[in-house]
Design a protein that fits this description.
Strand content: 25-35%
Largest sheet: 9 strands, mixed
CATH architecture of the largest domain: 2-Layer Sandwich
Number of helices: 24
Helix content: 25-40%
CATH topology of the largest domain: BirA Bifunctional Protein, domain 2
CATH superfamily of the largest domain: Bira Bifunctional Protein, Domain 2
Distance between the termini: 47 Å
């Protein structure tokens, strides 16, 4: 029976038993801070279980197929995934629930009916276990099973919950399926509860009678509840007659697609890696669809860790390109009817996964090299623990989750200094706080407090020139710092740079290079060019009008850009930061995917259209409450005063803003995006120019275009065609060069074989070559392997321009004893590198050509000592 059919039959069965069929809840638990993910079917009914009565409940019977994820906290199954036939991070949980309605008698009877009558399992292979103190459940089971197949077990096996730190819990009864004597430990008393694999748990019936509070005290619930859970993947393995959950129908398309992409055949030797990839990809697709964003904290960290763990499996299988995002569409296709939200989010999910893959792969090799070198040192010195400094460096610099470093280290029989890592993380947090304080430059402007200066009147919205009295001045190595009673100079704030200009008086010229603000005090920073400054005297403060206008163009453009991004990309777009200067603007916003050329063109067109419509800008002072009620765009995470400044562009957009703007949008002139990039996971950045800067940018681009035309001798409408032709020609030439190189190096295959040596009766075929192309080395090694066929280990090391690459192959008859993947790492250590791969073939690389001879000798040492 197919997995989809089992799911359907389960829900239909309980619908006939008057159960309300409830859709799966999100993987992000609603209103439950004790859980990192939804980890069981009962999570969404937690309040139902805790209710003192059934009076206000919408229903008292429910059934569902709940998507679950266990990869963080005490419910984590992550480390076991792939290593066992039953563990998953993501899985579906079938369950039926009673909230003060029926209890043990009905739950047991319906469980029996479903597995025997609906699924048609052999009732002679069914066993049950009960909590050793639960005589009621024991007696009920006697109506369906002989006493010898009803087992009493302790709290460890037959007591469930709570799902988090607190919540409902109680005794339970589990159903088991007897897989047969071939899975038995062969002990006389082998039965459910034994550590062997013979008896497979298929359904857990929880009789929820208690609630555990924060003090871990059990209090009886005012009503008795039923909570059952049957893993869909597990029961499918029974129905499909397979011994591993990963062999069932829903995993096959994923694994087959993975085979095609990786170019590696799925088999018993490597199935663990395929299983981890398939499992983790399902978890990623569902979690990202439900709104989890990869990050370095909480759920996001767990998802990022899952993704990187999956990527590492591909690395072990000698594949180092983004590929998980391609597999996501397989998951979507499989589940879109059951979970239609997957289809809607498919592109979003694939974009996030691809971006995360690309970011991690950039640093993976370097991180592995550092870790492998550290492992090599420890092994050499006989140490067993990797220092916290190394684990923190790998995490902080190379993006290695601590758990990944731990996992790799444990594979090498080493431990990691977990406390040391945690201490360094705490030190980093403290440094971050101190750094933040330092960025406020409180020390630089401490004189404001000392002098008791409280406020500067800002005139800059209406005036660009003003007469004002100098109330404080300070001369330092970095220049003068001046404070006036009032000023037209705008101080750096809200992403807008500070004004520049000049201050004049009798025989005085002072150049203002920047304007800062501390609280409500404006500080004019600059250089005295001529004359003498005197405290208490009035001077003329003159803002650089041309520069201020250019800044205003860019600031007004950011408001239009923000609105247009929402129109083009969706209302999920929100400002995440900005910088407005005279010659450019930068706008950071929440969005997961790279903008397409079509989207950028559309955005530019809409902004320039808004500029040409010459909308009028209006500024108003309103209460913060009033502004919020009017749905004014604001960064409400920021601290606003009770009165705020609202900048409106006709009916186009309205934002809270303290910056300086144009009077009409037509003054923007021309808007042009010059760059769009990823700033962080889920945050994009647009850089753009307006006015004269935009005109100058177009001039430069036009000049470069003409230069390209001249170089490739093509008209403007033929440029793309000509470039593609040149690229194609280059690709063909590259192939010819590779063929010539391969022909040259493979011409002496027979000579290399002829120079083989024998150690312990095994042919050792090794040589070094002046080439570093892994593809050529691998193809050459394969040719040698095809000729010798058996009883041989082949090692080829190439060196070209101080780049060392290598490949090691082991004939099939020796692969069980001489693992190429493990040997490659030991050889690579001699050339300051790392490597890995399959038992029959592995690749490695390094940066120290002087160690090539030693690497060759290392192979002989390894063979001698195995």
């Amino acid at each position: 029976m197919k997995t989809d059919e089992i799911r359907r039959k389960f829900l239909e069965f309980f619908k006939e038993k008057n159960h309300n069929i409830v859709d799966s809840e999100s993987l992000i638990p609603q209103n439950d801070p004790t859980l990192i993910f939804t980890s069981a079917g009962m999570v969404q009914f937690k309040d139902f279980f805790s209710a003192k009565s059934t009076k206000n409940l919408p229903y008292t019977r429910a059934a569902s197929c709940q998507k679950c994820l266990r990869a963080g906290g005490k419910d984590s199954d992550l480390e076991n995934v792939g290593r066992t036939p039953r563990h998953h991070t993501f899985f579906e949980m079938l369950g039926n629930f009673s909230f003060g309605d029926y209890f043990k008698k009905e739950a047991i009877r319906w469980a029996w009916e479903f597995i025997v009558d609906i699924l048609d399992l052999d009732k002679n292979l069914i066993w049950a276990s009960v909590y050793h103190e639960d005589e009621e459940a024991y007696k009920i089971w006697q109506n369906y099973l002989p006493e010898e197949r009803i087992v009493k077990l302790g709290k460890k096996d037959n007591y469930w919950g709570p799902p988090g730190d607190t919540g409902p819990c109680g005794p339970c009864s589990e159903l088991y399926y007897d897989l047969g004597e071939k899975f038995s430990c062969e002990k006389e008393d082998c039965k459910p509860g034994c550590d062997c694999d013979r008896f497979l748990e298929i359904w857990n019936l929880v009789f929820t009678q208690y609630n555990m509070d924060e003090n871990e005290e059990l209090k009886p619930l005012s009503k008795k509840n039923i909570d059952t859970g049957m893993g869909l993947e597990r029961i499918a393995s029974v129905m499909q007659g397979v011994t591993n959950n990963f062999y069932i129908d829903i995993f096959k398309p994923l694994i087959e697609k993975c085979e095609k992409i990786l170019g590696v055949e799925y088999n018993k030797k490597n199935e663990e890696h395929f299983h981890i990839i398939a499992d983790h990809l399902r978890a990623l697709t569902f979690a990202l669809t439900d709104g989890v964003i990869p990050s370095n904290e909480g759920r996001g960290y767990v998802i990022r860790r899952i993704l990187r763990r999956a990527l590492r499996q591909a690395k072990i299988l000698d594949y180092d390109k983004p590929f998980l995002y391609k597999l996501a569409q397989v998951v979507v296709k499989q589940f879109e009817e059951t979970y239609p939200e997957l289809k809607d989010a498919q592109q979003h999910v694939q974009n996030i996964i691809k971006m995360e893959e690309e970011n991690f792969l950039k640093t993976l090799d370097k991180g592995l090299e550092i870790l492998n070198n550290e492992i090599k040192k420890l092994k050499k010195n006989g140490d067993e623990i990797i220092d916290g400094d190394i684990t923190f460096k790998l995490y902080d610099t190379y993006g290695f989750p601590f758990e990944l470093t731990k996992e790799i280290s444990e594979e090498k029989d080493l431990k990691v200094d977990e406390n040391g890592f945690k201490n360094r993380m705490e030190e980093q947090r403290k440094r971050g706080k101190e750094s933040w304080k330092g960025n406020q430059k409180e020390e630089d402007f401490s004189f404001i407090v000392d002098e008791g200066i409280e406020k500067t009147d800002f005139l800059g919205y209406e005036k660009l020139e003003a007469e004002s009295k100098l109330i404080y001045m300070k001369d330092s190595d970095s220049g003068y710092q001046l404070i006036f009673e009032k000023t037209p100079f705008y101080a750096e704030s809200g992403g807008q740079v500070g004004d520049t200009g000049k201050i004049t008086g009798d025989n005085l010229l002072f150049e203002v290079t920047d304007t800062k603000k501390v609280n409500d005090v404006f500080i004019h920073i600059g250089n005295l060019k001529d004359g003498e400054l005197k405290k208490g005297k009035s001077y003329s403060l003159i803002v650089d009008k041309k520069r201020r206008k250019a800044i205003a163009r860019n600031h007004t453009a950011t408001h239009i850009l923000h609105r247009v991004l929402k129109e083009v990309l969706g209302e999920h777009v929100n400002q995440a930061g900005s910088m407005v200067a005279e010659n450019r603007l930068r706008f950071d916003f929440t969005h997961m995917s790279k903008l397409s050329s079509e989207e950028i063109i559309d955005i530019e067109k809409r902004i320039n259209r808004a500029a040409m419509k010459n909308y009028k800008l209006k500024t108003e002072i309103k209460s913060l409450k009033e502004a919020k009620e009017e749905d004014v765009v604001a960064l409400f995470s920021e601290k606003y005063k009770d009165e705020v400044r609202v900048v409106s562009i006709d009916n186009f957009t309205k934002e809270l803003c303290g910056g300086t703007h144009l009077d009409y949008t037509g003054e923007i002139g021309f808007f042009k995006i010059v760059d769009e990039s990823a700033l962080a996971s889920g945050v994009r950045r647009i850089e753009a120019v307006t006015g004269e800067s935009a005109y100058e940018y177009i001039q430069r681009e036009d000049y470069l275009l003409k230069e390209i035309q001249n170089l490739i001798k093509a008209d403007s409408n033929e440029i793309i065609k000509k470039i593609n032709s040149l690229k194609k020609e280059r690709k063909e030439l590259k192939k010819k060069i590779e063929k010539l190189k391969l022909k040259k190096v493979t011409s002496n295959v027979d000579e290399i074989i002829k120079n083989k040596s024998k150690i312990n009766g095994i042919n050792i075929i090794k040589t070094s070559l002046e080439i570093s192309d892994n593809n050529i080395l691998r193809e050459m090694a394969q040719k040698i392997k095809d000729k010798v066929k058996e009883n041989s280990i082949i090692l080829l090391i190439g060196n070209e321009k101080d780049k060392v690459s290598g490949v090691i192959m082991v004939t099939e008859d020796l692969a069980d004893k001489y693992n190429a993947g493990k040997i490659s790492g030991k050889i690579a250590s001699k050339i300051s590198g790392g490597g890995g791969g399959r038992p029959d073939m592995a690749q490695f690389g390094g940066s120290d050509p002087s160690g090539i001879d030693e690497a060759m000798e290392k192979l002989e040492d390894i063979v001698k000592n195995i």
